[in-house]
Request: fold
Amino acid sequence: MNRDDSKIVAFCCEHSAYQAANKAGRMRLHYPDNVRIIRVPCAGRVDVQHILKAFEKGAAGVLVMGCQEGACQHLTGNTRARERVKYTDSLLKEVGIDGSRVRMVNLGPDMGQQFVAEVKEMAEKIEGEMRR
Amino acid sequence: MIIAERKPLEEIKNMLSGYKEILVVGCRTCVTICWAGGEKEVGILSSQLKLASSREGNELSILEATVERQCEKEMVIEELRDKVQEVEAILSMGCGVGVQTIAEIFEEKPVFPALNTTFIGMPEAEGVWVEKCGACGDCMLYWTGGICPVVRCAKGLLNGPCGGTRRGGKCEVDPEKDCAWVLIYRRLEKQGRLDLMERYYEPKNYRAVKRPGRIEAATA
Amino acid sequence: MAIPFREALKTKDFIVTAEAAPVKGANTEKMQEHIELLKDRVDALNVTDNQSSVMRYPSLGTCLLIKEHGGEPILQITCRDRNRLAIQADLLFAFSRGISNVLCLTGDSIDVGDHKEAKPVFDLDSVQLIHLVHTLNSGKDMAGNELDGGVDFCIGASATPSADPIEPQLVKFRKKLNSGVDFIQTQAVYDLEELKRCMEHAHKVDRKVKVLAGIVLLVGAKMAAFMNENVPGIFVPEYLIDELAQAPKGTGLSKGIEIAGRLITQIREEKICDGVHIMAIGREERVPEILEAAGL
Reply:
């Protein structure tokens, strides 16, 4: 990662979320610019260590975005991703990073607005907690 | 195989308090299989420790390594000899044997256990490991249909069951666990060897292995 | 002055034993009151041994008090807290002080008690303990050494008539009987058919053994349900829990005494077994009422 000011890392499955992000761009929908999008062949490719490394390198929130239930091209990639996100959340809690700073999101490839909504929600959560 | 699980993070952090440069060492054998101390777990724990220490305003520099088997001196020396020079302390993610092997070889470096070694067992299902053997040194599995009463009966009875068996053949101590003697009865029944269960078993020789145990091969 | 229990076993038509529960502490006052109240009303008084793995005044100590008061004690020994050395030593001491009845038990698990981090011993199990007493009775210790001063214990064991599955328990029961016991005190019995079956099994192996049915005083529906869940070896049937639940408020205890009396009467009239062992846990002072309710 070389965007030092990226506060949010979004791992985006190329079959769904990555396309949704592109659509958001084409629709000129605005979302916070400190988001780093990382394209992955499937949400199931994202491992626990990838998420932890993102936090080590300064991320304040991580989104793992994959296909909707039943739509995964690799059948169970999104389900496994959800389990891993849950596990990573518990590892982060152990470290004192509480409050669901890692989140699993299921999207379809044309859901540009939802993509933006998820990113904004994470950004607001981070900002809200930083202000406290 | 040896089953272990990681200590709570707080406990590990307390052990490391005051140390700034550490080596976290995993093992590719038993603790990899029970998801406690393999290469992956080394990576995860190192990340957690780095995140925790930077949140507390401390700097923790971590080297990572994984040994094929932490209980083999040659392998430990081979893998760790150089890295050990660069650190103040070693956090072993091996079982108790691994921790002690490393400690014996690199005597001047403090070595800490990141795991609690729990029992000798096997994976019963994905992510579920159960105790099977108590290393009693006097195996009686011939008599009990291949089910160990020493360690799978919560009271280690040789003439079981006790009167506390719960409904459905569950153990008095833990309703989730099966009464080993009910299991033994059913197994022997399947094999038509229930006569073995009617037998009186004499008190166990608890000194079959004089601890600390030591075995020397006849041809060494 | 009570007659020796082993004589009562041989000569009495219907044998009655009860329990004196030790105190958690060194104040033996209440125990001594219970002993005085019960010693002449029953053929022998059992003393539990860290019952339910809760640390208490030792069984051996309470048995001595019973002797001092002129009663007949039954020493309960479990395998949970003592190894074979300690058990043999305790038995030598007990006999030397006139205690000659022993109930050989495995013992509840540490987990159900109040010292949950203690190391469980279980060097022996109840069957091995029965063999151990026979060995001492023969004038030797477990290692084969001759004893200077022998012992002669009357040996008892427990049985669990209601268990599911029952077959493994029956194997255990046969083993105990084959090891040679003078009396059996069962865990709480509520289903008399099960008790009858238990007797049939007992007599197949040993016609001479005396079986005493365990009667636990129920004091209310909640307590009965609690025991079902938490006390090893006890199963209270639904219909009794209902009967207790329907009793008017504040009469749970009387209802419990009535139920106990009823059970004992039926056992005696139908000659189902050789007697009863009354466990009024925490309510030893009610035992006389139970005996009365049973027409004893």
Summary: The longest helix of chain B spans residues 39-55. DSSP finds eight helices and seven strands in chain B. The mean pLDDT of chain B is 96.
